[in-house]
Amino acid sequence: MDGRWPAWGADAGLVVLTLVPPLLSQPYVDTSQAAWASLTVYEAVGAAALLLRRRLPAAAFLVGFGALLAALVASAGEGAKLSPLVFLPPAVLLYSLGHHCASWRRTATAVLGVAVLGAAGLWLNRTTADTEDLRGGLDVLAALAPMPLAWALGFAARTRQALLAAAEQRAADVRRRQALQAAQATHRERTRIAGEMHDLVAHSLTLLVVHAETLRARGGELPDWARAQIDGLAAAGRHSSGELRDLLRMLRDPADPAPLQPAPGLAELEALLDHHRAAGGTAALTMDLAPHPAPGPVQQTAYRVVQEALVNARRHAPGAPVRVRVEGDDGEKLRCEVVNGRATRRGTPGAGTGLGLVAMAERVAALNGDLTAGPTRDGGFRVTATMPWKRADA
Fold it and tell me: CATH no. for residue 338?
């Protein structure tokens, strides 16, 4: 309804603007009953032709022009005259013929039919009109002479629309081609990054796990503390290798981002802290969660925040105790806090690039959450992430 109403409104307005002027000017030409009768019938047929001009432009033009000839011949036969503005509807119909009719055969047929009707009407007019001034002649030719201009204007309007549509289509094709090129470039870059990560990181992790497993096989020759460290090193290497494989597959085929293993969540926090303890750290976990489980994206982000905070603690504050607390309101928000104390021994010089905190902040911000990180009064460091559930559910 909304899409059709503007076209019907334009048609109604055009009918009024085309048919009202002859009615207004007719009293100044002839007020006889015969003139009004011929004009009324002609305008009724003309209104129908104008309403059909978009769908059937050639037929509408033939009908409208035939109605005009019939009205002129009938009124002249009764000794009445019509207003010269009765030629306005055929001019509009001829414009519509040039604008809406794309078939040259139909256009030529309509023009030929109008020529035949015009010749027949002129002959009938000369045989039925009583006086010379009611017989058509140069006055009719003068009214019909500008008619081809109306068709030319309609044809020019149709040509302009076709050119605009072709330009828009070319622009759309260019945009699609640019989008395709950008997608191909992105895919090539993903593939290149995946290859480099596989050649460098994955190879190094594999060697790390192999060496750790080799040392585990000779665990009887090592002290107890070394065996525990090697077990943690091997477990961390295997875990990182699995996540790296998932990341590499996502980089190579982003249309299939399903991980090879389940995404980590709050249930895996205890295992994450076990890895931290195996690496020589001290960690305590406190969880106060509602019965209703948090959304998956919130759980995964909380896991990554704790993971990055533990890595930073091992880098910058080795040996410091770490406290992890996770609190969740039922259906409201999740709060995750990681606090490490003062380092008991010197950290690794130049460790870290500062991108870990940035990545954590981006993950939390993607869920419309807040992340704060900074030193504590006792020389430690605190990381706090608060994430609402509603954004993750959406």
Answer: 3.30.565.10
